[in-house]
Amino acid sequence: MSTDESTAGAGAPTPRKSAGRTAIAVVAAAALAGTAGFVVANSTGDDAGSTTAGSDTAGSDSAESGGTGSGDTATTVVAADIPGEHRGFDEVHTEEPLATTDWLAERLEEGELHEQGIVLLDVSENLPSSELTPYAEAHIPQAQYVEWSEEFTAPNTREFISAEEFTELAQSLGIGEDSTVVLYGDNNNWFAAYASWVFNLYGVEDVVLLDGGLHKWELYDERELVEEVPSVPAGNFEAKPQNHDLRAFQPEVLEIAEQNTEADGDAVAAVNLVDIRSAEEHDGEVGVDPDIFQGEGAAVWGHIPGSVNVTWTQIVDEETGEFLPAEEIRSIYEEAGVDFDDPIIAYCRIGERASHTWYALSQILGEEVKVYDGSWSEWGNSVGVPVANNSGERAGLWGQSGD
């Protein structure tokens, strides 16, 4: 936060510290193994011949030629350039990750936010069914709008924009090296939390959520909305390569899932998998409606073996949309079976809801958490990966009939 403690008031975030970096090269595995920084040849329990992130053997001759590895193990691997490095969690964790609506109202009363080192961004889904006002009609004063489904991702790859492109985006929003970025949105900050994860991925250190989001500001507090779109001076922020300590790729998750599969689906791996979708999705009773969620459907329904299910709505106050107190959040996950002595990987369908859980566990509780942003739309469409289904029936495109 660029304002000092005496003027920040209640709910003011605390600046973060930078961490050391080690660059890595990433190889993405398609079909059997997604993207991970290492290659997994199959998911059947045979010798997969995997290599660790940054290994010179990732993307071996057999993989590149489309041939087979040792024995009968076949690889389905394509090279994909996903630059990144390991920076740890020091620059991510903060003591005050939530800004209150009172705090923001006070900052707005003081004048121009950019002069106070604050960048306010609306990242909303804007569904027609939403009870909240879409940005184009009115929004919190001095807020800029970011389109989550277009501005963060590269076309036709489902990969994020490059660090250079993120730099351009951030500077156009007025983000500087010392800026405090305050994010809010509709649907209890679903996509604002997703944006927070992406911003942290590229090294924006001072990122906070407006607790309760637009729901708290507009409906619960009944505060002012305006039509005016602000004009801000360009910022000087320079993005870092992705922090791969915040992001899980499919082969990493596959290794965990196979350990759990060998134990009949019980969680035995020393990593927590948290599925934050609905209980019906987790159990494999339902998939998604492709007419509504185009491109998000999966051929197979269910969950990753060993994952626990904590729907993201369990950790927010139904009335205000704010996060529950930290200890209540911790208790909810502990009761579900999360062992906080081990690291955590959260997933959903395309990664955005999982980012909301990431925010709670990483930013509010201070735990080491990754988002598997490939999530179920990748996992449920991959050939050969293990799937657990509690419904007692096979489901999805490949499970309508048969043994």
From TrEMBL:
Residues 1-20, 45-75 are annotated as: Disordered. SUPFAM superfamilies: Rhodanese/Cell cycle control phosphatase. Residues 114-226, 267-388 form the Rhodanese domain. Pfam families: Rhodanese (PF00581). It catalyses: thiosulfate + hydrogen cyanide = thiocyanate + sulfite + 2 H(+). Keywords: Pyruvate, Repeat, Transferase. One of its GO terms (molecular function) is thiosulfate-cyanide sulfurtransferase activity. It comes from the Bacteria. This is Sulfurtransferase. It comes from Nesterenkonia sandarakina.
